[in-house]
Amino acid sequence: MKVVVMGAGVIGVTTAYYLARQGAEVTVLDRQLGPGLETSYANAGELSYGMTSPWAAPGIPMKAVKWLFMKRRPLFIWPLISPTMWAWGWQMLRNCNDEAYRVNKSRMVRVSNYSRDVMPDLIAETGIEYDGRAQGTLQLFRTEKQLKGSKADQEILAEYDSPYEVLDPEGCIAVEPALAAVRDKFVGGLRLTADRTGDCRMFTVALAERCAEMGVEFQYGQSIRSIAVENNKVVGVDTEIAGRITGDAYVCALGSFGPKVLNPIGIRLPVYPVKGYSVTLPVTDDAMAPQSTIMDETHKVAVTRLGDRIRVAGTAEIAGYSGRLGPHATDTVRYVISDLFPKGGDVFRAEGWTGLRPMTPDGTPVLGPSRYANLFLNTGHGTLGWTMACGSGRAVADVVLGKKPEISLEGITAERYGV
Ligand SMILES: Cc1cc2nc3c(=O)[nH]c(=O)nc-3n(C[C@H](O)[C@H](O)[C@H](O)COP(=O)(O)OP(=O)(O)OC[C@H]3O[C@@H](n4cnc5c(N)ncnc54)[C@H](O)[C@@H]3O)c2cc1C
């Protein structure tokens, strides 16, 4: 079977891998000149199995109002004249209740836990290096109120069998020794012991190389203009340079840009770009640097150790498809690294980056079949595309090849939006 995968981000490349591994003839198309050059490029690097939750949660609308007025705010909303943006925001608000949260969370955890379980096999099979570590995530609380507020999260973690430990300041320092230097800045933490970390872009590039060795054809610099359909089937993907590329089946893994080619063929997915920022800086003193991921609960910023680098990422900005990296855009993430690990890395050599999270209003990705018999979807991973990549890629590859995926896709397909 010949399969055309649209998109060479972490999602498209893992899908290509699982397809090729089962004997499919795969072509991957991407407008960039290599793999993992858009949202998969410099994310926070967290494999957040324990923190897999939708952003749409009870209490979030009130918190969001507070965040909008903070000095170093984690949320920006630009009042754009965009019906798509406001419709998406409204759908998200409608998911901010107990019942929707529980349903959405359980769907997301299904994909995330599957990813957690299958990723080690992929790493063992391919031997790829990605600056991976398995030392958990430490959610760091600066106030007693945050610590108390985490009780609800603990109950949910217990319900999902996600291992965790509640730590006092000394416990936090035991897992992240460099925090001893800022002992007065936090009151405790919640450590998700099964979480892992790693460089998503490094993984994507290395896996794309393995895929190429397995016979996958990568066509870079191919901007997809549209998907051609006839009689309820896709008959080709029209690109700007190579013209029409054809296959027996097609997978859309275009991240935030999926709707640009799916809307015209009637698949109106509420996937909206939520912008985020990161900086990456070299470690200057290992003893003063983070060892794994620390999530600063106040600023919603993640600080992650990736080999001899530190990645600091956060901010949710609703600003349409703008890829602008303004001069002060990374101020908040820079502040957090200077505040918590002032001697760990060289902030003056920090490289800034921005990316668009492909977010659905319910936080759950869109996997599997579409209304066209030979078109499959693997998109909408929002804040957790790196975490969910292996599970999503494997499940979607199975569906494309006519096999029953190892997890149920009930509630995870495009059907839930009626498109
Ligand atoms: C600041 C930030 C921090 C994050 N931190 C984490 C984290 O710690 N853990 C986690 O799990 N997730 C995290 N994420 C989310 C994660 O990065 C994304 O969910 C994931 O990268 C999405 O992968 P993707 O392959 O769907 O999209 P992308 O990586 O964007 O890939 C889509 C590909 O499609 C291509 N494309 C688009 N349109 C076209 C077209 N018309 N023609 C041809 N090619 C096209 C693009 O070039 C791109 O290569 C973070 C995101 C951000 C922004």
UniProtKB/TrEMBL annotation:
Pfam families: DAO (PF01266). SUPFAM superfamilies: FAD-linked reductases, C-terminal domain (SSF54373), FAD/NAD(P)-binding domain (SSF51905). Transmembrane segments: none annotated. Residues 2-398 form the FAD dependent oxidoreductase domain. One of its GO terms (cellular component) is plasma membrane. The keyword rRNA processing does not apply. One of its GO terms (molecular function) is D-amino-acid dehydrogenase activity. The keyword Secreted does not apply. Gene3D superfamilies: D-Amino Acid Oxidase, subunit A, domain 2, FAD/NAD(P)-binding domain. InterPro entries: FAD-dep_OxRdtase (IPR006076), FAD/NAD-bd_sf (IPR036188). One of its GO terms (biological process) is D-alanine catabolic process. Keywords: Oxidoreductase. Belongs to the DadA oxidoreductase family. NCBIfam families: PRK00711.1 (NF001933). This is D-amino acid dehydrogenase. The lineage of its organism: Bacteria, Pseudomonadati, Pseudomonadota, Alphaproteobacteria, Rhodobacterales.
